[in-house]
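Reviewer comment 2.1 asked that we show a complete input and output for one of the modelled complexes. We chose the flavin-adenine dinucleotide case, as it is the one discussed in the main text.
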Amino acid sequence: TTPMPWRPADRSKVYMADLESALHYALRIEVARFSVLTGERLKALKSFVAVLAKYFPGRPFVQNFLRSVNRWLRNVSGPSVPYRALELVLTNRKEGLAPAVLSNNVTWVGCQGSKPHFRGYPCSLWTLFHLLTVQATKHRRLSTGPLEVLGAMRGYVRWFFGCRECAKHFEGMAAESMDQVSTVNEAALWLWSRHNRVNARLAGTETEDPKFPKRQWPPLDLCPPCHDMVNGRHVWDEAAVLRFLKAHFSPANIFLDFTV
Ligand code: FAD
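Response of the prediction step:
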């Protein structure tokens, strides 16, 4: 196989190519594994698409696309949806729009691994959900509650995420403490702290890309004020972390490099 071209990425940026690739992979590959969507799985899909339609700060044509998929899903009557029917909406064939809004393949930039089996989709899914939790803090009038985005993530991971071991671990963390989240700011911080737990658990294991060692995030060089020392022990300054999350996962920090 031909090696993938190396796309230089900056760790202080978020890349739209990763986010749009996550949408493509989630909706066209992971959801497509189920030929009929019904019950809790259909509910999880609806919640996921609803938060995307509300909070994903995409390019206008992508936002329009997500809103139209959301409208379509909200209008389905009956207890089940064949994936074939959803696929027609996802590829815009009904409206006669060509070509499809979501590209037919993935381009990893910030989530590019040093080998094809590293990083990619799981990295982009984390990035997408951090972005959504942060966007929900900025559009409070749209919010239906502090667990709106986290609940959608929990449902997506539980019912669709192809890494079943990941889903089991994430569900464990969610069941343990997600219901203690009582504000949208706490929701963004909850996801940040759980992601760091996963980073700590996976550091040094074979899933770690040697070119991207798993560290606690954000590292000192990305956010000096996030780090503190109390009695010789490292502690996070959570107010600084929240400010950093809001700046890092903001539309102004999303770059369009390598999008088509
Ligand atoms: P990732 O951990 O994927 O992070 C992506 C990017 O997010 C980083 O490059 C960084 O820019 C940013 N980031 C890092 N930490 C944080 C943070 N704390 N807050 C905000 N942003 C951050 N793999 C397993 O082997 N076992 C598991 O049990 C497992 N569980 C998972 C559960 C979920 C819900 C998901 C989405 C993934 C899970 N994975 C698991 C995959 C694993 O967490 C990584 O996504 C994968 O190994 C790729 O790692 P990465 O180096 O690209 O960085």
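The CA atoms of residues 53 and 213 lie 33 Å apart. We note this here for comparison with the apo prediction described in Section 3.2.
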